[in-house]
UniProtKB/TrEMBL annotation:
Alphabetic keyword roster: Signal
Domain of life of the native organism: Bacteria
Signal peptide: 1-18
InterPro entries named among the record's database cross-references: TPR-like_helical_dom_sf
The name this protein goes by in its record: Tetratricopeptide repeat protein
């Protein structure tokens, strides 16, 4: 009887999953092609449809948040960025309740909070008390799996230390975390891009140049949409570094 009750309790604690492996593979393939507007639109429609049928499916929830986080990252309008950040955050709060020991929703909730904070302004976000909520989710992601998505939790933590206003800003800690992530996942171009910006802000333009060259010359095979975005953004930083080195 005890074994039966234990099995039932474990089953009840496990997140509901209705999506088939084939469906999830299809969604992941569309996400890989998200730089193509038609693929992104198809993915958004598919996720919306599947979530309407299976609102408590953790695998669908975190994939939906992943898309929202990406859309928020590339959004140019601050109002849209704010909305998308909040949607990713809210979506993953549902996921955290379903599976608190899974890394995906802990991570994308933090990303959503970060995107929202960027949109409303860091000072306002600090006044709203979002720093604690952000760190709660991100630190949980780091604890669960710091290597998730090529070290993304550490990269976001490093960026947090970079973007904070003085006197909270900590370029040394940001550099340390980015160098750690870059050593383990050198293919992640965002890590090198953020490292270049951090080093430039720390008056280390020559080292910043070395980092930005890794972005410029790096392969995008690991994540074509991400690499294309980061290499385009890196052009501005490269120009700033060259200006500083004159």
């Amino acid at each position: 009887m005890r074994l039966i009750l234990l099995a039932l309790s474990l089953f009840a604690a496990w997140p509901v999953q209705a999506a088939s492996p084939e469906l999830l593979a299809s969604l992941d393939a569309l996400f890989a092609r998200r730089a193509d507007a038609s693929a992104a639109k198809e993915l958004e429609a598919s996720l919306k449809k599947e979530l309407q049928a299976s609102a408590e499916d953790y695998e669908l929830i975190w994939r939906s948040a992943r898309l929202l986080a990406w859309q928020g990252d590339v959004a140019q309008d601050s109002r849209l960025k704010k909305v998308l950040g909040k949607q990713a955050w809210d979506m993953c709060e549902r996921g955290v309740k379903l599976a608190p020991e899974r890394v995906e929703c802990q991570y994308f909730a933090a990303v959503g909070i970060g995107t929202y904070s960027q949109a409303v302004g860091i000072m306002k976000a600090l006044k709203e008390g979002l720093e604690g909520k952000f760190n709660e989710r991100l630190d949980a992601a780091i604890r669960i799996n710091a290597d998730f998505d090529l070290g993304a939790p550490l990269v976001v933590k490093a960026r947090y230390h970079y973007e904070l206003p003085w006197p909270k800003r900590d370029l040394s800690e940001s550099t340390k975390l980015l160098e750690k992530a870059a050593a383990k996942f050198p293919q992640n171009l965002r890590t090198h891009y953020y490292l270049a910006e951090t080093l430039l802000a720390a008056d280390k333009a020559q080292k910043a140049k070395e980092a930005i060259l890794k972005v410029k010359q790096g392969s995008g095979a690991y994540n074509p949409a991400e690499a294309q975005l980061i290499q385009e953004r890196a052009k501005k930083v490269e120009a700033e570094i060259e200006e500083e080195l004159k």
